């Protein structure tokens, strides 16, 4: 079983390298020319594989590690089988979306990965009562949002297959899926992993405080979807609920930041300086995300944010790369005492430069000013990220992962 887990972990990290390669191709097509692949199909393949082949797969493995640590005589085979099925669906989506975008085969593979998330969730619920960690609430919350996001996928699939595509419905369905994946499943899973990290080093955290933060974030996440569809001219009472949800999420995030701050001395004793730096890096990205959400409750700001493509891409990359992926790398290498992980360092530099350039492009676009050679610069940054992804994978090949050594 240990060998199987090791292979799955390395394969999932290799999947991130594939995501980076697709990103390079997309940026190359924009800066230069590459007529062999359709850009829209590339985007679909890139996003779906990033979600399921990389992030979902790693989250499954990290939760599996906690289950193994917490539950005596834990049987991991059924979880491993589900992870493998998810990966089969992920590689199917990678090829099918590249070939022809949304059509029957890509929908079949999407359904395979989607159904595997249902199976993983129900298996987790069966073991829930045996878990003592306070993070179990967060994992359940994340899975609830993962399942909820599937409604957006079903609507998108129906429109693509039927050919009845309505612009507002298409956008609303897309943002529905993205919101409950990014702000729901991914973020809640990462917070759960963070809570588990703090528990392991003896942090002071009560059930009451954990429940308070969880409820603020969980309840507000549902209504916060409205921030993505303010362009739909919603009734004033709905807008008020959305603003209140944004304030709730901000308050819950501040309580979470305070929890980390309160236990910082414990983190200094148990984590090396590079691990703490990654936590700060991901935490700052999360803080900026919360501020942007709060700011987007102002109609003019929201119209600006969703009116410029570079701003939307910058926000998605802020959450997916700077916040979530950085934090997941911290989890993968959390048991290493070495600070010379050059691949992760290069990745952090690349994601920062990516956000910087996209941010400048977004600001300049307000006045319709073109950033000279911006697409060429972004292509260079994507190559940097691809190199960093390969370096991280190569490190895992060369050195036995302590994630496996200590977890299984």
Task: Write up this protein.
It is a single chain. The chain has helices spanning 2-31, 39-70, 77-100, 104-128, 136-162, 167-200, 207-224, 236-262, 264-270, 273-295, 299-307, 309-332, 342-365, 374-398, 402-407. It is mostly helical. It has a domain at 271-408. The longest helix is centred in the middle third of the chain and has 34 residues, at 167-200. The termini are close together.
Radius of gyration, in angstroms, nearest whole number: 21 Å
What profile does the largest beta sheet have?
Answer: none
Distance between the termini: 8 Å
Helix/strand/pairing class, anyone? mainly alpha
Unreliably modeled segments: none
Strand content: under 5%
Tell me the number of strands. 0
Question: Keywords for this structure?
Answer:
single chain; 408 residues; mainly alpha; 82% helix; globular
Please give a quick description of this structure.
The protein is mainly α and 408 residues long.
